[in-house]
């Protein structure tokens, strides 16, 4: 089996696992009233409708949320995205334009109009409503972020960085803003700035902000690792996975650490480095003794490794 075929098999298995999980958790009439679906918040239900390409249901959900919570900016973002999925951004523009005409002091609606223009690719036009949104509500982080994204498209990178960092300052737990910041530095031609800022916050003890930087960096390493592996560059994939692990360890993201150790074990095992793979699976069990896949991998490896030092009972 080739490396690419092996990768595709594992990917297919993952997709199958996710599909089975969705079936198991999907609401059905035979279940009790307290289904998994019922436990979701309206915002979560709206996001799921978007993922399932059901824009009409998503639009109804986000509009209802906005009626009940006029300052819920994420509901406004959801409305625009629902129109986008439905390929009806013209209707989104008309909806928010009418709203701001009737309610000129409604900052979320100005944000919705500006964000609509942004999604339409009308970047110069998006600036005016977005700037109006932050004038009316300087704490509207999503508008600052969208404004930064629009200015990036217009190649005003310095101002874009300033605005996205304003959004981060208002809402430092929103990883989307950090992804946007990384994208701006890449477009600007100075990608190292993102890691430099990560190191600065890490050294300064600003762990909350450093964690968000780190999550974006780790995700980038993971994507690059998948790409290298699919291209047959196993050694580079292992190297990138090690870098991902290092970042997860630095920000103390335990779930990420476990996943990285296990992924590294898989790559090393396929590369024939059985002792190193065994070590990685052992690291998984040190953190999560109930990790069944790691335990099974160790047992399988012990049948291949003849060195008595590895014949350990679990």
Query: What's the N-to-C terminus distance?
Result: 31 Å
Largest sheet: none
CATH superfamily of the domain at 45-163: Tetratricopeptide repeat domain
Mean pLDDT: 89
Helical content, roughly? over 70%
Low-confidence stretches: 1-33
Structural class: mainly alpha
Rounded to an integer in angstroms, the radius of gyration calculated over CA atoms is: 23 Å
How does this model look, in words?
With 314 residues, the protein is mainly alpha-helical. The protein is built from 17 helices and no strands. The chain is elongated and about 75 Å long. Residues 1-33 have low confidence and may be disordered. Residues 1-29 form the signal peptide. Keywords: Repeat, Signal, TPR repeat. Pfam families: TPR_11 (PF13414), TPR_2 (PF07719). InterPro entries: CellSynth/LPSAsmb/PSIAsmb (IPR051012), TPR-like_helical_dom_sf (IPR011990), TPR_2 (IPR013105), TPR_rpt (IPR019734).
């Amino acid at each position: 089996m080739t490396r690419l075929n092996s990768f595709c098999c594992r990917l297919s298995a993952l997709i199958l696992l996710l599909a089975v999980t969705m079936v198991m958790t999907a609401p059905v009439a035979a279940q009790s009233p307290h289904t998994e679906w019922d436990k979701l918040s309206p915002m979560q239900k709206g996001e799921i409708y978007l993922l399932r390409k059901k824009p009409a249901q998503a639009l109804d959900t986000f509009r209802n949320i906005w009626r009940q919570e006029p300052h819920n900016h994420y509901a406004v973002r959801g409305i625009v995205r629902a129109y986008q999925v439905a390929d009806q951004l013209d209707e989104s523009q008309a909806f928010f334009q009418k709203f701001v005409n009737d309610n000129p002091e409604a900052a979320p609606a100005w944000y919705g109009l500006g964000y609509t223009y942004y999604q339409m690719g009308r970047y110069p036009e998006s600036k005016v409503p977005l700037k109006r949104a932050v004038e009316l509500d300087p704490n509207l982080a999503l508008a600052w972020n969208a404004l930064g994204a629009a200015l990036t498209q217009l190649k005003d990178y310095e101002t874009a960085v300033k605005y996205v960092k304003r959004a981060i300052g208002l809402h430092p737990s929103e990883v989307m803003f950090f992804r946007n910041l990384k994208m701006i530095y890449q477009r600007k031609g100075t990608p190292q700035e993102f890691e430099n800022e990560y190191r600065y916050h890490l050294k300064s003890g600003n762990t909350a902000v450093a964690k968000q930087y780190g999550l974006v960096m780790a995700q980038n390493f993971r994507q690059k690792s998948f790409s290298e592996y699919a291209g047959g560059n196993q050694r580079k994939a292992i190297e990138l996975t090690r870098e991902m692990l290092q970042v997860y360890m630095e920000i103390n993201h335990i779930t990420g650490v476990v996943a990285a150790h296990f992924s590294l074990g898989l790559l090393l095992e396929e590369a024939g480095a059985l002792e190193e793979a065994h070590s990685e699976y052992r690291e998984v069990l040190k953190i999560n003794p109930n990790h069944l896949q790691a335990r099974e991998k160790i047992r399988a490896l012990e049948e291949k490794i003849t060195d008595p030092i590895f014949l350990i009972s679990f």
